[in-house]
Specification:
Length: 148
């Protein structure tokens, strides 16, 4: 009897208290030794991105960012950073890619904007496929009268 009571109590407590997301992770790969100080800023920006989109995508598991550094062309031009980002969800993955010259942080911001666009596309596709859009005006009135 006591065990049953405790099980119910802990179940209700887990439902009532919002536990922090321990399963989120950010994996950053491809950084050279001189670019290691950027890892913390990349982690914090990615975590901020996931916290922002947690409201809309409750199935976020983590994120992976791969940094590729292209060699400068002849003449010692600027470095070219190419970032590939993957957002892992329970039901799939979203991909984005961006490049920028000589600035890793701006390339990261471009890649996060691309992921944002992918999330918006995925949400609009889900809305078109599954849940019907909310009708307004005469169409709504017509549908309500037809359903009665």
């Amino acid at each position: 009897m006591v065990e049953r009571f405790l099980r119910k109590f802990y179940k209700k407590a887990r439902e009532a208290i919002p536990w922090p997301r321990e399963r989120w992770y950010v994996q950053v790969s491809g950084l050279k030794d001189e670019e290691k100080p950027f890892k913390e800023s990349v982690d914090s920006e990615c975590m901020r991105f996931m916290q922002k989109w947690e409201k809309f995508l409750s199935t976020i598991q983590g994120m992976s960012v791969n940094v590729k550094r292209a060699k400068p062309k002849r003449g010692g031009g600027k470095k070219l950073f190419e970032l590939h980002a993957t957002l892992f969800l329970d039901n799939g993955e979203l991909f984005a890619k961006a490049t920028d010259k000589d600035d890793l942080y701006s390339a990261l911001m471009h890649v996060l904007k691309e992921l944002e666009a992918e999330v918006n596309r995925a949400q609009s596709f889900k809305q078109e496929q599954g849940v019907p859009k909310r009708l307004k005006g005469k169409a709504r009135l017509w549908r309500e009268t037809r359903l009665r």
